[in-house]
Each structure stands twice: as structure tokens, then as C-alpha cells.
Design a protein that fits this description.
Oligomer: single chain
Strand order of the largest sheet: 1-2
Strand content: under 5%
Number of helices: 5
Shape: elongated
Structural class: mainly alpha
Distance between the termini: 14 Å
Length: about 180
């Protein structure tokens, strides 16, 4: 489990880093476009196309596994806050397995669409022509990483629920 966690953490951190770089690049593109509009009464060619088709996809989908790793998704504990730690771990394991399988199904569908758009050579037409089919693969990659993280945490929670591992602090980020 320790080696698997380390490999998963390396992948999750790499996707988070890519998402972070994309948000910085998006900032420069948007500021550059605003500057061009204000000073030269012109647009930054491709700013809208790259922002909406590349940067927003990377910023939205690539860090999803990191959010799962730190257990940063919204959790409503209205009815479960009084349960013992093993009971909560059991419910978390069930939810993790269901969501992980759902994410794998979404990834499979997204990969099929990505393959079709790759074969078609999908482009976005705007101020410039932008090839956008690679972003379909970013979406599939981000959701696949999320699915793996969900299933990994579900296995950890299941081990706690059946008493193989002691309960741990869910608010603690994995190092």
C-alpha cells in the first residue's frame, strides 16, 4: 500500500503542477488580451480559444485527484457525525467504490469521445484555428486519476472498517 500511495502521490502531484502552470499561463493570456484591447484596441490572437479549450480544462479536471487525496470534496455529515470511526470508514468505502466506478465509466465514455475527436482532428475556429482534440484526453486523464484515487481511498477506508487498519485523521493530507 505504501508503494502504491507513493506512485499515486507522484502522479497526483504532477497533474496538480500541470494544472497550476496552466492557471498561471491563463492569467498571462487573459491579462495580455486585456492589455491588447485597452492599449491597441485589438485582441490577443487565440486568447479566448486557448483559455476556454485548454487552460480551463486543465485547471478543472487535472487537479481532481489531488482534491480527493486531501479529502477536499464536499462531505455532509448531518446523519453520520455520531457514528463510530469504523462505521464512518465503512460508509466512506461504499461511497468511494460507487464514485470510483462512476468515474471509470465517465472516463471510458470520455476516452471514446477523445478517440473519435482525435481521428476527426477536432479544431476550434475563432480568431485563429486551434487544435482542441488533445484537451479531450486531458479530461479523460484527470477523471481516470480521480477514479484511481477514489478507489485507493475506498480500499483504505474498507481496511479501517473491517479492523485491519486503525482509524486515521481524515483531515490530514497525505505526505
Amino acid at each position: 500500500m505504501v508503494t502504491t500511495r507513493r506512485v499515486l502521490d507522484l502522479i497526483v502531484n504532477a497533474l496538480l503542477l500541470i494544472g497550476g502552470v496552466c492557471i498561471v499561463l491563463m492569467m498571462f493570456v487573459v491579462v495580455g488580451d486585456a492589455f491588447m484591447r485597452g492599449v491597441f484596441n485589438s485582441t490577443f490572437p487565440g486568447a479566448e480559444e486557448f483559455t476556454s479549450n485548454y487552460f480551463m480544462i486543465a485547471v478543472t479536471f487535472l487537479p481532481l485527484a489531488y482534491v480527493q487525496r486531501i479529502k477536499g470534496h464536499v462531505i455532509i455529515e448531518l446523519f453520520t457525525s455520531g457514528l463510530p470511526p469504523r462505521g464512518i470508514a465503512g460508509l466512506d468505502a461504499i461511497v468511494g467504490f460507487v464514485c470510483g466506478i462512476g468515474a471509470l465509466i465517465f472516463c471510458w465514455a470520455a476516452s471514446g469521445k477523445a478517440a473519435a475527436m482525435t481521428r476527426a482532428g477536432e479544431h476550434a475556429i475563432g480568431t485563429i484555428l486551434v487544435t482542441v482534440w488533445p484537451t479531450r484526453w486531458m479530461l479523460a486523464l484527470g477523471v481516470f486519476a480521480l477514479a484511481v484515487a477514489l478507489l485507493f481511498h475506498a480500499v483504505e477506508d474498507a481496511r479501517v472498517a473491517i479492523g485491519l487498519d486503525p482509524p486515521n485523521d481524515d483531515n490530514e493530507e497525505a505526505a
